[in-house]
């Protein structure tokens, strides 16, 4: 078991849960020393490298952050782990939620091979708007935010990348920056904790950051408490690293139903799905590389043959690894030729403020198309940096509980691999002892 502190990386997680808090106010208790409008990334040699081995070294050590392992779930485990669900912080949040109003929908079961068990569910009626069953996106129960699954404007490609941030993403982010392309980036909480510089680069570059859960599991198979924790701790991790709390999230594998949506809605989160799937992550495993390239070719063709004449798309693709990011770089020149507009989801939806804090303002669709592509400082630039880093203390006081067994491997990284539906996610954990 890897139980250890990631160095210094993550911001001071203050937990000032006030009594009688409303669930949608939870984010006000997060503090972050990051100003999203003034991100400074240190001059590390890996920042423009293409080599993940080199890029990931020392990537997780913003000096202004302090990571306290006892305040976070265990990396890549269900977010109730490490006693989080018994913490005063989480208990207060849990108790603030009006659970009796939640639609009465059971926790789903997984099959032995890690799929979903639909036994006993009326898939033709799909009463719970279970996306995995029928790609339903319009909730059938009341008081639930409706999903976004396509950019409404014609000839528009909604650019989205899941499963970041990854320390090896810099060549890819450099490319997007050079091309002045902004995407919606769905970040996994465990990755944000591992590689906060990656998330900081995301906000610095003006991408639309959103929540992709803590441990990337089938959400409908998790209990209410687990669903809440998966979303909450990812919100918190993104806030710690970047200074903003997202208002959007995407379920892993698209697995969402009205129970899960209702819980997300309590945190003011709206679900973003997709209507085209590249399957890029599967290239070379369950699909051939050529088959994935064919998906891209088809989607590119749809941009010029009238398929998106009335409305646009949102395309699922990934930041996971060199292969998926190479697909992106290879195909974007054709995508931008074939489609009139290529942009992040906040912009294509005219969502000026995709974060709880109004510190970053996105352009409207019309402004973006007119060439005003940059984000601006929002109406509330004072609320972001609520805590200042202490002059010398924070960076050094990492809670060094690296497991004794591996304290000695002071310069190496430990890899933890969790298979998810045939897909392996490797989380690089660097030991506290290594970097200070
Ligand atoms: C931006 O951050 C730098 C270093 O963290 C600081 O010196 C500077 O005053 C900040 N600028 C603004 C406008 O806040
Ligand atoms: C906390 O979560 C763990 C793991 O999900 C679970 O086994 C335990 O029953 C939960 N405890 C409480 C008090 O809810
Ligand atoms: C959050 O949710 C509350 C209650 O549903 C709503 O009044 C408020 O407008 C929402 N805020 C945002 C930023 O979506
Ligand atoms: C447009 O291209 C796609 C992908 O090749 C194809 O499936 C679809 O039938 C085409 N539509 C029209 C109207 O030609
Ligand atoms: C991060 O990127 C590296 C290099 O491409 C890859 O091997 C690794 O699996 C990725 N990790 C995660 C958690 O996505
Ligand atoms: C993938 O790796 C190759 C070889 O190291 C490199 O040239 C390329 O730029 C990488 N692609 C991305 C998107 O990082
Ligand atoms: C975005 O705003 C434009 C007007 O500027 C409007 O025509 C369009 O319908 C809006 N799109 C959405 C999704 O609200
Ligand atoms: C600015 O932030 C403060 C503190 O978070 C909040 O009370 C206020 O409503 C915000 N104002 C705007 C215009 O968003
Ligand atoms: C007990 C344990 O996890 N040992 C590992 C420590 O790290 C080295 C190098 O990464 C591994 O080889 C050991 O297995
Ligand atoms: Zn994912």
UniProtKB/TrEMBL annotation:
**EC number annotated for this UniProt entry:** 3.5.1.41
Q: Does Transmembrane count among this protein's keywords?
A: no
Question: From which domain of life does this come?
Answer: Eukaryota
Xref: Pfam families: Polysacc_deac_1 (PF01522)
Q: Coiled coil located at which positions? A: none
What is the similarity comment for this entry? Answer: Belongs to the polysaccharide deacetylase family.
* Stored InterPro entries: Glyco_hydro/deAcase_b/a-brl (IPR011330), NODB_dom (IPR002509), Polysacc_deacetylase_ArnD (IPR050248)
Any GO BP: cell wall organization
MF (Gene Ontology): chitin deacetylase activity; metal ion binding
Q: Which reaction(s) are listed as its catalytic activity?
A: [(1->4)-N-acetyl-beta-D-glucosaminyl](n) + n H2O = chitosan + n acetate
Q: What is its main location?
A: membrane
Where would one find the signal peptide in this protein?
Answer: 1-21
**Protein name per its UniProtKB record:** chitin deacetylase
Query: What cellular component GO annotations does this protein have?
Result: plasma membrane; side of membrane
Q: How does it sit in the membrane?
A: Lipid-anchor; GPI-anchor
What are the start and end residues of every segment in region (Disordered)? 376-411
Judged by the first EC level, this protein's enzyme class is hydrolase
Q: Which UniProt keywords apply?
A: Carbohydrate metabolism, Cell membrane, Cell wall, Cell wall biogenesis/degradation, Chitin degradation, Cobalt, Glycoprotein, GPI-anchor, Hydrolase, Lipoprotein, Membrane, Metal-binding, Polysaccharide degradation, Secreted, Signal
Query: Residue ranges of the NodB homology domain?
Result: 155-348
Tell me where in or outside the cell this protein is found.
Cell membrane; Secreted, Cell wall
**Required cofactor(s):** Co(2+)
